[in-house]
Amino acid sequence: MGEAAALVSIAMGSYSDMRVIESSIKILQELEIGYEVKIVSAHRTPNRLYSYAQSAKSKGIQVIIAAAGGAAHLPGMIASMTTIPVLGVPIDSKHLKGIDSLLSIVQMPGGVPVGTLAIGAPGAKNAALLAASILALNNRNIAEKLDIFRDRQTQSILEEPEAYESYQAR
Ligand code: RP5
Asked: Which residue, 61, 67, 91, 152, has fewest beta-carbon neighbours within 10 Å?
């Protein structure tokens, strides 16, 4: 997916996580960063998990976004098998509203880090932006696009509430 070679790989535990991961994809597309999306379930497809994590580096992947819900062991398991930075997105699960996912992902014992983002769509959006920041350290093109994104975002926050009506009508 994406025109360019994938630098970011998104792994999600289930196709049902796609509604959250759309927020990552939107940002990666806007910044024109090559990406791939895979469904990798730590407990339902363990063999796929192993080959996914162990082959990521040789495929040229530089950042992994891993989204999972419930007893969300996917990001930690991926991180255990690669030194590529892993950004964990806790899915806003049905019964515990993502608190389960958040605690499962964020509480990694010292030694194998997972950079954990917020629960749900805001976390997915920020995971993509953080991936872009990491890539931007060695990629001027991405750095410029990220600066433009930030400038536009700043411009979209108007000082006077009344100004929003005319701004939104543009
Ligand atoms: C996790 O279980 C997935 O990441 C998903 O968030 C959750 C529920 O999966 P489904 O029952 O929708 O397949 O593995």
From this structure: 152
> Is 10 exposed, middle or buried (CB count within 10 Å of its CB: 0-12, 13-18, 19+)?
buried
Q: Which two tokens stand for residue 144?
A: 């410029």
| Alpha-helical segments (H) within 31-113 | 46-55, 74-80, 99-106
Question: 164 C-alpha vs ligand 1 centroid, how far in Å?
Answer: 39
Phi, psi dihedrals of residue 100, rounded to the nearest 5°: -60, -45
CA distances from residue 135 to 6, 34, 62, 142, 147 in whole angstroms, order as listed: 12, 11, 7, 7, 13
Using the mean position of ligand 1's atoms as its centre, give its distance from the Cα of residue 158 in Å: 39
Closest to 87 in 3D by CA, of 34, 2, 169, 9: 9
pLDDT digits (tens, 9 = 90+) for 103-147: 999 999 999 999 999 999 999 999 999 999 999 999 999 999 999
- pTM value > 0.90: yes
